[in-house]
Design a protein that fits this description.
The structure holds two protein chains of two kinds. Chain A is mainly alpha-helical. Chain A has helices at about 10-25, 30-55, 85-105, 110-130, 135-145, 145-155, 160-190, 195-200, 205-225, 230-240, 240-265, 270-275, 275-295, 300-320, 325-355, 370-385, 390-405, 410-435, 440-445, 450-470, 470-490, 495-500, and strands at about 65-70, 75-80. Chain A is globular. Chain A starts with 7 loop residues before the first helix and ends with a helix. The relative contact order of chain A is 0.10. Chain B has helices at about 5-10, 10-25, 35-55, 75-100, 105-125, 125-145, 150-185, 190-195, 205-220, 230-235, 240-265, 270-290, 295-315, 320-345, 365, 370-380, 390-400, 405-430, 445-465, 465-475, and strands at about 60-65, 70, 345-350, 350-355, 440. Chain B has a three-stranded antiparallel beta sheet with strand order 4-3-5. In chain B, strands 1-2 form a two-stranded antiparallel ribbon. The longest helix of chain B is centred in the middle third of the chain and has 32 residues, at about 150-185. Chain B contains 20 helices and five strands. Chain B is globular and about 70 Å long. In chain B, helix 2 packs antiparallel against helix 3 (about 35-55) and helix 10 (about 230-235) crosses helix 13 (about 295-315). Chain B is an all-alpha fold. Classes of the chains: A mainly alpha, B mainly alpha. At the A-B interface, helix 5, helix 6 and helix 7 of A face helix 17, helix 18 and helix 20 of B.
Chain lengths: ~500, ~475
């Protein structure tokens, strides 16, 4: 299977990385640097398309697997592969990367070469996170990602960028270091291996499971971010350049959800099942709190950042209801959120490029000078609030369906979040696009140009394609999600009393 | 008294280095002032020869000079590391001494003498040899620390290091004499045999062990015996600081391991809790105090204190995995620290060394490559993959989890997160602040070589550590 495409995933990782090295020695001007970066990210996207074509959706196993010994004396391997859970994230990464390059075309003017190098390294690390089958390899990519992201926020960000960059770095680092401890503990209790597949489904002692669950939980909950670990997100989003926000919202946040699905549930299923109540409650709080906070924001980016907290609450909700509808809904919701929120950040960035303001109060009536912009913002806002026929509706609907089957109370609370989303998004659209034009500068705003439309149109197509016909994406997940559920449901939840009374 | 020519062969690297050091002193008066670089090349020759000699006998395992001295892969591993560190120090020094106006020939002799002392230290198998090596190393460092003899700070550093150092040496010597009084021997293996033979132990053994911990703890700058480190690191000429922080620490850890695992291994249950508490306070204090430093040399001093705390975990674990992880840690630590201090030597503010963190402002715009090298060293010191610092910490933590010290690992990682703050601050200042025009950057060839080698080593060890791991694993201390 996939015999002649054996090295596809390695090419995907190393193409941007090699490109970054080449770019470092590229003597040309900024325009040339931009074109090379665009060429590389588009090339990576083209390379990733055959993944979709040759992926066998009927198989639950890892595909396109490559294994090379890395540190043989400790059984560490360079092992990569994708299954139905990770495939879509890889594609999302390769799709959003060229968009990020395009979004920085005119917005980033200082130190363009370094910026593009950081973006390319970032892409390589993000793909690496999603395809790693070895825990150490995963961790290396997971942490290495922080370095370019720290620089992207801190060097090319807004006025308060230094604070935001350090906060982002320390929050994520604190979470992931405990993940490192969990990885090492798993190595010794799982038979001295870092092989992710091998570490799944092992009968770890109850106390070990509990500790590992909380280590996983902290690492992934900070990344998602779940309430109450979300405070780094609004700061990071507001200060990051547009491309940074798109990467953050589009891909980085998904790693938390991916971590829960790939590691937390299959490796410590019993502990995961014992603590679903806490996670579900936190998810519901995140949905409502994020929405509530979004209502109060005066800064466009902050509003979308809090809406991310709310929307990612649906993801964790879907994951921890532990049924096929919930998990597939969560996966789809993550893809949708990547597309829709990514696009919303792009739109805010485009407006900011023109006026250098993100304050909602500075706008009003700009749909008149910018009709195309008005259409785009409306489409993505409606997509974000889950209008039927658009992508987010499918994901949220599946998540809520899954939640109603097991936890009706929490599902009701989450549904309130959908209503609040409609309130804050429509209100935002109304205040920005409609009403009287407040300043003469706003009356002369340029509408979206060709490059900007080229960035947004593919995302619009995806919004409607997934909204009307999500089945191709869902069918990619079925086998892997069902396999995951059998792994999770194999044993009863832990009796917590038995954990604490263990000798 | 047995004595054979083979014994001479075993100590040949030490003899080479010592002879060259004496030769440097003899040649120096006959050299014109502007040709003192020759002495540096002389030093490279000595280190190169010694490197060649040691690598020839890398896997030999033999005890010579009536059990005073041992030639084994464990010691040789450290020796090779020391040669590289010494050579990099000399490379850094050549330009630095000229800039500071202290380009004296003796300097190179002292570096070689210190190296020789460290070599004796890592190969010592008798407490008397330990003391000999330690004193040779320490006394030369007292002088080197005060080498900027027109500067108050440097003199203060030398005086402080000398007074506190002699005090700690005295304590160590007291411990050694107690051990001799209890067992009638100073030989490490004989001590181990003696410990194994006696059923009831006199509390004096515990006292002796504690005194040794104090003595070695001072050398590796473990809290609460670290008080000298920030002042000495700040005051000493920067290449000396680098060598002190790398060479002296590595050699002291080597002998710490040898004495505590080989001779006092039977008392592990006694020294383990002591070292654990030492490690905990060292990690906590080092990382927390480093947060508030504004001088980069002081910050690196506290960082080096904290790293000693992490490395101590390897000794606490004490099995093959633990010792291996400590050896690896020292290897990694050497390159990242030498690199970081190397960058410090390049900054000049109004004719003096720019060693404040704010002097790094905007370095990324003045010199991309130097700033990028510093970025690598800082992330490595913070333990972020894909740099070597991560690999080093990873194996230390693995050893600790394997020895059921998971709580210590959790503490270690929490303070790793704390440490990221002050390492990141340097990166932040370099990349996110406006350049300070008062600070110039010099780029002598020697220092550039050091930075390139160190950065390459840090990345290589981080991305493909396997050959080094295998090498260190084979060289792990074997108990006789």
């Amino acid at each position: 299977m996939n015999g002649n495409m054996g090295h596809l995933l390695s090419i995907l990782i190393f193409l941007p990385l090699a490109g970054a090295v080449v770019l470092a020695f590229f003597p040309g001007n900024d325009a040339g640097v931009r074109r090379i970066a665009l060429g590389l990210t588009v090339a990576a996207f083209l390379v990733s398309i055959p993944l979709l074509g040759s992926f066998d959706p009927s198989s639950q196993g890892m595909q396109f697997v490559e294994r090379v010994p890395w540190v043989p004396s400790f059984h560490i391997e360079y092992a990569v592969g994708v299954d139905g859970i990770s495939l879509l994230f890889v594609l999302l990464t390769t799709l959003l990367s060229p968009i990020c390059v395009l979004a920085s075309w005119t917005a980033v003017t200082a130190r363009v070469k370094e910026f593009m190098i950081a973006l390319l390294v970032m892409e390589a690390a993000m793909i690496g996170v999603f395809v790693s089958l070895d825990f150490v390899l995963f961790y290396v990519f997971w942490e290495a990602m922080l370095i370019p992201m720290y620089l992207i926020i801190g060097v090319w960000g807004g006025p308060n960028r230094i604070y935001a960059a350090i906060k982002f770095f320390l929050y994520t680092l604190a979470g992931s270091l405990l993940l490192l401890v969990a990885i090492i503990v798993l190595y010794f209790s799982g038979g001295r291996t870092f092989d992710i597949l091998h570490l799944m489904g092992q009968p770890y002692p109850a106390a070990v499971q509990v500790w590992i669950f909380w280590a996983f939980f902290l690492a992934f909950a900070i990344k998602v971010p779940m309430f109450p670990f979300h405070t780094w997100l609004p700061d990071a989003h507001v200060e990051a350049p547009t491309a940074g926000s798109v990467i953050l919202a589009g891909i980085l946040l998904k790693m938390g959800g991916y971590g829960f699905l790939r590691f937390c549930l299959p490796m410590v299923p019993q502990a995961s099942r014992s603590f679903t109540g806490i996670v579900l409650a936190l998810s519901a709080i995140a949905i409502l709190y994020g929405a509530y906070m979004a209502l109060a924001q005066t800064d466009l980016k902050k509003l979308i950042a809090y809406s991310s907290v709310s929307h990612m609450g649906f993801v964790t909700l879907g994951i921890f209801v532990l049924n096929a509808q919930g998990i597939e809904g969560a996966l789809l919701q993550m893809v949708n959120h990547g597309i829709t929120t990514g696009a919303l950040f792009l739109l805010v960035g485009m407006l900011y490029d023109r006026t250098h303001s993100r304050q909602i109060a500075d706008y009003g009536g700009i749909a008149r000078p910018m009709p195309r912009y008005g259409a785009m913002l409306s489409i993505f806002a409606l997509s974000s609030l889950g209008l039927p026929g658009m992508n987010s509706f499918v994901g949220e609907f599946l998540v809520l369906l899954g939640a109603f089957m097991t936890h009706a109370g929490i599902a009701v609370a989450a549904t309130l979040g959908v209503i609040l989303a409609a309130v804050y998004l429509l209100w935002m659209v109304q205040r920005v696009l409609f009403g009287p034009i407040t300043t003469s500068d706003n009356a002369r705003l340029m509408d979206l140009g060709g490059r900007e439309m080229a960035i947004l149109v593919p995302l619009v197509v995806l919004v409607f394609a997934i909204g009307f016909y999500p089945d191709p994406l869902l069918s990619l997940m079925h086998a892997s999600v069902n396999h995951l559920l059998t792994q999770v449901n194999v044993a009863a939840p832990l009796q917590l009393s038995e954990v604490w009374t263990r000798p | 008294m047995n004595f054979s020519v083979a014994d001479i062969g075993a100590v040949l690297p030490e003899i080479i280095v010592a002879v060259y050091a004496c030769a440097v002193l003899l040649i120096e008066p006959f050299l014109p002032k502007d040709r003192r670089d020759v002495l540096a090349y002389f030093g490279f020759a000595a280190l190169g020869l010694a490197f060649w000699g040691t690598s020839r006998v890398m896997w030999t395992d033999l005890s010579v000079l009536n059990g005073m001295f041992v030639l084994d892969p464990f010691g040789n591993f450290f020796k090779l590391l020391l040669y590289v560190a010494a050579a990099m120090t000399i490379l850094l020094s050549m330009g630095y001494l000229k800039r500071e106006g202290i380009h004296l020939g003796e300097y190179y002799a002292f570096v070689l003498f210190a190296t020789c002392g460290m070599m004796i230290l890592v190969s010592a198998s008798d407490l008397i040899t330990v003391f000999l090596g330690l004193e040779l190393m320490s006394i030369t460092f007292y002088i080197l620390a005060g080498f900027k003899r027109f500067e108050e700070k440097s003199l203060e550093a030398a005086a402080k290091y000398f007074i506190l150092g002699s005090f700690s040496t005295g304590i160590l010597l007291f411990g050694i004499s107690l051990l001799y009084g209890l067992s009638g021997t100073t030989n490490l293996q004989a001590l181990a045999l003696h410990l194994r033979g006696t059923e009831l132990q006199s509390p004096a053994w515990i006292l002796a062990m504690i005194l040794l911990v104090v003595g070695f703890g001072f050398k590796i700058a473990a809290v609460p015996f670290h008080m000298w480190a920030p002042d000495v690191y700040e005051g000493a000429p920067t290449p000396v600081t680098a060598f002190l922080s790398v060479g002296s620490k590595a050699a002291s850890f080597a002998v710490f391991i040898r004495v505590f695992i080989e001779a006092l291994g039977g008392m592990q249950s006694d020294w383990r809790p002591l070292l654990i508490s030492l490690s905990v306070v060292t990690i906590v204090t080092g990382n927390v105090v480093a947060l508030v430093q504004t001088n980069i040399k002081r910050m690196l001093a506290y960082s080096s204190v904290a790293h000693a705390g992490y490395a101590l975990i390897g000794l606490i674990v004490g099995d093959a995995l633990g010792i291996f992880s400590l050896m690896l840690y020292m290897l990694v630590y050497a390159f990242m620290t030498l690199g970081a201090f190397g960058v410090v030597t390049l900054l000049r503010r109004e004719g003096v060394e720019g060693d404040e963190i704010r002097d790094f402002a905007g370095l990324a715009r003045k010199d991309r490559l130097t700033a990028f090298a510093m970025l690598i060293f800082m992330f490595s010191l913070a333990g972020i993959p894909p740099t070597a610092g991560f690999v080093a910490k990873f194996y230390i933590f693995m050893a600790a989890v394997n020895a059921h010290l998971t709580w210590l690992v959790v503490l270690g990682v929490v303070f790793t997160a704390v440490s990221a703050y002050f390492y990141l601050r340097v990166v932040m200042v370099m990349y996110m602040k406006e350049p300070d025009q008062a600070v110039q950057l010099v780029a002598p060839r020697g220092a550039v070589v050091v930075l390139a080698v160190a950065a390459a080593a840090v990345l290589l060890l981080g991305i493909y550590p396997s050959p080094f791991l295998d090498y260190a694993q084979q060289a792990v201390l074997k108990l006789r």
